[in-house]
TrEMBL record, chain A:
GO CC, one annotated term: plasma membrane
Main location: membrane
Listed PANTHER family: CASP-LIKE PROTEIN 1U1 (PTHR36488:SF8)
Keyword Cell membrane: yes
Record field: transmembrane: 23-45, 75-98, 110-135, 163-187
Species the sequence originates in: Salix brachista
Protein name (database record): CASP-like protein
TrEMBL record, chain B:
Native species: Salix brachista
Membrane topology: Multi-pass membrane protein
Locations listed in the record: Cell membrane
Domain Casparian strip membrane protein: 5-141
Self-association state and partner proteins as the record states: Homodimer and heterodimers.
The keyword NADP is annotated on this UniProt entry: no
Protein name per Swiss-Prot or TrEMBL: CASP-like protein
GO cellular component labels: plasma membrane
Record has Transmembrane as a keyword: yes
Amino acid sequence: MGLQNEEKLELGCSSSQQRSKKWVLLTVRVIAFLATATATLVMALNKETKTLVVAMVGSTPIKVTLTAKFQHTPAFVFFVIANGMASFHNLMMIMVELFGQKLDYKGLRLAMIAILDMTTVALISGGASAATFMAEVGKNGNSHARWNKICDKFETFCDRGGVAIIASSAGLILMLIITAMSIFKLLNKPKSVSS
Amino acid sequence: MIKPKRLLSLLLRFIAFGTTLAAVILMATSHEKGTFFAVSYEAKYTDTPAFKYFVIANAIVTVYGFLVLFLPPGSPIWRLVLALDLVFIMLLISSISAAMAIAQVGKNGNPRAAWLPVCGQITKFCNQVTGALVAGFIALITYIILLLYSIYNFLNPLFEKA
């Protein structure tokens, strides 16, 4: 009986302002999902094959076919996995928001959403920063460690990697906004009336 | 007297401050000079932008941790501290992730890109960088524990106890 009163109190407070807030959050989640999904797909399909002339024997050139794939670098693998999990998380949250209004566990629904959002922010930031610095080494090389830059030979690979990293950074900023909104929702939820 | 909750929070914040400071000092003082078959080399943390970012990020978090240690318990700034904790956790994660990515290439090399591992020649530098990364990791875990603890303390009055 007390629970029914609480539900009525919540529904009574749900003005048009709260409903528009819900739609704003949902829209930002959809955009963030698109950003991280784009980053995942672009990096996962990032592959470039190039035939280079290594040496000349007499007058016949010796050609070597080199492939640049994202799996060669653990940082990019982490990037793909992190953005994939973030996209999955956003998808789940959108589904729960749209279809699972009744899903609750001891009143912890908003807290779980906020905490999961925070972990996703952490994951995306880790992946994006690792990929950024690996891409910087690939673009500029490192003279102290005698690591040559590879972006002048594999331009398409580097360009696509850059696009993926930019998309992931945009997704990160959006996820930060979403986390702030979720925490706001959590702190402002109508306090349960204790008997 | 100091409440046990406040004591625990203070202890955690002190540990976090100490480990970020250790990470900064270990990374900043890591340099090694040597000769390798008449080729003189020098390894410093400024060689890689990733390590520079690690030092800068951990320095910022050290200053923040130091300032928060002196915050009185009742002040309303603690809400801002909660938000800033989240932001600085994100900064720490990104700095550790970047430094670890470069350190992994330095240790194992990347044969496909013809990048040779360099840790064989500069073992002392590599060990110190590893130490700095471990300290940064412990700082990160301490900050996460702190954040969860603050959220738990904040939300506890809101939960209906059965």
